[in-house]
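Human:
If only I could read backbone structure tokens as easily as an amino acid sequence. I am handing you a single protein, as its sequence and its fold in token form. I hope you can help me see how the letters and the tokens relate. Thank you; the sequence and its tokens follow:
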Amino acid sequence: MSKTKTTRYDVAEHLRNPEEMAAYLEACLEEANGDAAFIAKALGDIARAKGMAQVARDAGLSRESLYKALSGERSPGFDTILKVVGALGLKLHAEASHG
């Protein structure tokens, strides 16, 4: 019996256009339960799909600081989140919660 070769699933490979990126971020926002590091990691996935170097340039951040901010190991500042969201070509919006 031959062994099955598996590779690590990388969501960034499946985020091919702005609509998919926005839908992924929306789903992560709903799932996050107030965990800012979880949102940062989701933004990191989207940034990798778009190209980290380009996103860093557009956000006015160094690539290294962008990687650190979006690693999911800490919660970046809200100003960083806003810069990254803008650099990704996404918008945050609010709606009333009914629950």
